[in-house]
Amino acid sequence: MKNEGIEGTERFQSPGKGNGLRAVRHFALGELVFACPAYSYVLTVNERGAHCEHCFTRKEDLFKCGKCKQAYYCNIDCQRGDWPMHKLECVAMCAYGENWCPSETVRLVARVIMKQVKTPFNIQKHRFPFCTWLVLCWFFFSDLDKMDSEKEEMNQADIAALHHFYSRHIRDLPDSQALTELFAQVNCNGFTIEDEELSHLGSAVFPDVALMNHSCSPNVIVTYKGTVAEVRAVKEINPGEEIFNSYIDLLYPTEDRRERLLDSYFFTCQCTECTTKSKDKAKMEIKKLSSPPETEEIQSMVHYAKNVIEEFRRLLEMCELSMEKMGAIFTDTNVYMLHMMYQAMGVCLYMQDWDGAMSYGEKIVQPYSVHYPAYSLNVASMYLKLGRLYLGLEKKAQGVKALKKALAVMEVAHGKDHHYVAEVKREIEEQK
After folding, report:
1. How far is CA 320 from its chain centroid?
2. How many helices (H) and strands (E) does the chain have?
3. Alpha carbon distance 262, 301 (integer Å)
4. What DSSP string describes 284-331?
5. Alpha-carbon span 187 to 248, nearest angstrom
6. CATH 3.40.190.170: does it fit domain 285-364?
7. Second CATH level (architecture) for the domain 372-432
8. What residue ranges in 39-160 does DSSP mark as E strands?
9. What does residue 293 show for φ and ψ, rounded to 5 degrees?
10. What pairs with residue 63 in β-bridges?
11. pLDDT at 122 (0 to 100)
C-alpha cells in the first residue's frame, strides 16, 4: 500500500520491526525523499525572543505578544497563525506569572491535546486508523510495560504538571491511563528540532518521520526548515529498500549504542553496523603501552568515562582532569575522549575562551569525520563552529576552508535551497 502522504514510498511490515517505510523508486544522494510538517510543535523557552514562535525563523526584530509579553513573532500573520496554540499558554502564563514552568514535554502534550480537540487528525491524508483523539497511540509502538520505575515517576510528574498548569484552560482532559500512554509515546517518538549547529530549538511530533525504523547505518537524514522536517537520502536508495533513520548519536561503539536504544526505545539493534561492529576498534582505540591494560581495566575506564560524561559537564578543570586520567589509556581519537573534549569546547565557548575552544575543535573534527557516517550533521556542525571560530580569530583562510567543508555536508543533508545553506554561502562570500 503506497503511503499517500509520501510520494515514492510505501508503508510495509518490516521483518522484526513492525511498520516501516520503503522506497518504490530510486532516490539519489542528497535527494529529498519527503517533507513532513509538524503535527504539533513548541519553541523551547530558551529561544524566545530569538526565534519566531510560529515559524521558528531566526530574526533580530521580532515583536512580542501584547498579553503575555513572552512569545515573539515575525509579523501579524505569524501571530495569528500561532494563536490557536499560543492562546493556551498565553492565558496560563498570565495567570501563573513567574510560577509558570511546565517542561517542554508537558507543553508539547498540551498542544497535541488542544490540536486534536480543535482539528481532528486528517485520516485520509495520513492513512492511519485513528478513531479517538489519542493520536499517537495508534501509529507509534507502545511499550508501557517496559518502562522502569524512574520513567514511570517522570511520567506521573508530567501528568501532574499538565493538570496543574492546564486543567483550567483545557476542557475535559483525558483520563490518567490515556495521559500515561500519550506522554510515553511523545517521550519515545517526539523529535527535537535543531538549527545548523545542532542547537536545540524546540520539540515536535512528525507522524510521517516516525514511520521510519532505526539503523546505525542510516540511508536518510532528517533536517529542519522551520517547523517542517525534511528527509534526504545520504546514500543511493533503490526501489524495495527500506528507508532507515538514526534515532541516536552514532559516535559511540556498538555496546553503548545498543544500551541507549534499549533504554529509550526498548529494542536491541541488529543492523549491519551493530552485527559487524566494523568501527568499534577505531572508536575504542587505546594507546600502545609496554604493558597493555587488561580487558577489565578498559571496561572500568569506559564505565568511568560514561559516569563523568553524564554527571560532570560543568567545569573546564573537571574536563581537563578527566582527559588527563583517561589519556593514560585512551588515544585522542577514542570516542570517550572526543566526548570529553566536546564538553571542554562547550565550556570554553561559554567562558569566551575562543583559543581554547578552537584548540579542542581542531582535535575533534577529523576523528568525527571518521567515526560518523558520511554526511553527518555532527560533522557539519563541528566544521561550522570551527570555521566561525577561525573567522572570529581573524584566521580567514582556515575559516573559509572549514565553512566549505561544512557546506559540502549541508548541501546533501539540508538540500541546496535551505536557508542554512544560503547563510553559510553568504559567510564564505563575505570573506572574499
Report:
1. 27
2. 16, 12
3. 22
4. T-B---SSPPPHHHHHHHHHHHHHHHHH--S-HHHHHHHHHHHTTTB-
5. 14
6. no
7. Alpha Horseshoe (1.25)
8. 40-43, 63-64, 72-73
9. -70, 150
10. 73
11. 46
- The C-alpha atoms of residue 231 and residue 209 are separated, in whole angstroms, by 8
Strand, helix or coil at 191? strand
d(CA 189, CA 265): 9
- Looking up cell 566549505 gives 404
Domain ranges of the chain: 44-192, 285-364, 372-432
Q: Which residues of 94-128 are buried (b: 16+ CB within 10 A; e: fewer)?
A: eeeeeeeebbbbbbbbbbbbbbbeeeebeeeebeb
Could you give the CA distance from residue 213 to residue 254 in angstroms, rounded to a whole number?
17
CA 272 distance to own-chain centroid: 23
CA distances from 424 to 56, 200, 406 (A): 18, 19, 8
Q: Which 8-state DSSP code applies to residue 372?
A: S
Q: pLDDT digit of tens for each residue in the chain (432 aa)?
A: 344 447 899 999 988 888 899 999 999 999 999 999 999 999 999 899 999 999 999 988 999 999 999 999 999 999 999 999 998 889 888 988 888 889 999 999 999 998 876 655 443 344 333 323 334 443 444 455 555 677 788 888 899 999 988 888 777 788 888 888 888 888 888 999 999 998 899 999 998 999 999 999 999 999 999 999 999 999 999 999 999 999 999 999 999 999 999 988 889 999 999 999 999 999 999 888 888 888 888 888 888 887 776 664 556 677 777 888 888 899 999 999 999 899 889 888 877 788 989 999 999 999 999 999 999 999 999 999 999 999 999 999 999 999 999 999 999 999 999 999 999 999 999 998
Cell 529509550: give the residue. 264
The interaxial angle of helices 396-413 and 377-392, nearest 10 deg, is 160
- Residue 324 is placed in which grid cell? 588527563
**Nearest to 112, CA basis, from 175, 35, 34, 206:** 206
Domain 44-192 has CATH 3.40.1170.60: no
Strands 32-37 and 63-64 turn out to be: unpaired
Distance, in Å, from the CA atom of 226 to the CA atom of 193, rounded to the nearest integer, reads: 9
- Residue linked to cell 515536535: 204
- Are 44-192 and 285-364 equal in CATH topology? no
